[in-house]
Amino acid sequence: MLTLEPETEAAQERLGARLSAALDGGCVIFLHGDLGAGKTTLARGFLRGLGYQGAVKSPTYTLMEPYELDGRPIYHLDLYRLADPGELEYLGLRDLLTDAAVLLVEWPEKGEDELPPPDLVVDLTHQPNGRRLTLSARSETGRRLLGRLVAA
Q1: Could you tell me the residue range of the domain that residue 111 belongs to?
Q2: Predicted confidence (pLDDT) per residue in 3-42, tens digit
């Protein structure tokens, strides 16, 4: 487990970029936190760290935004508006799950058992001066990711 406290939005984006730099393959990352905790900010930094230059918006209404960066598929999901976990089947979620794919999932609790298990869970909470991010590895992939993040 690793706890970090970025004080600004820019610092949180830099943390997302550091997280993406620590990747060595596909993984599933769950992003937990209240509205406004910075889940999309972290995802934006993650994508920027992989070289994405376009706008990164929360996929609240589309449920998913796909990206292809250096031959790696990245899927940013926001399940806040998901009425039923079974709706994930309509997104073709099973077809997205490849060894190289990265899933960044906001509000994963709305997807219940339809989502693959996470490799890494990031809990974001409001603090008086910024945010607190607690990163917990849930698999060997997640442990390697955290290890490289700490070493960087």
Answers
A1: 2-151
A2: 877 878 888 899 999 999 999 889 999 999 988 788 889 9
| Separation of CA 80 from chain center | 14
Sign for the CA dihedral angle at 11, 65, 92, 69 comes to negative
pTM: 0.91
List C-alpha distances in Å: 25 to 31, 80, 89, 144.
19, 27, 24, 11
Decide if 115 contacts 105 (C-beta within 8 A): yes
The Cα–Cα gap between 137 and 69 comes to: 24
Work out whether the CA dihedral 94, 142, 17, 23 comes out positive or negative: negative
As given in the structure block, the two tokens for residue 115 are: 């989502």
Place of tokens 């955290």: 146
How many domains does the chain fold into?
1
Q: In what order do the strands lie in the sheet with 64-69?
A: 2-4, 130-137, 120-127, 27-33, 102-106, 72-78, 64-69
The CATH code of the domain that includes 130 is: 3.40.50.300
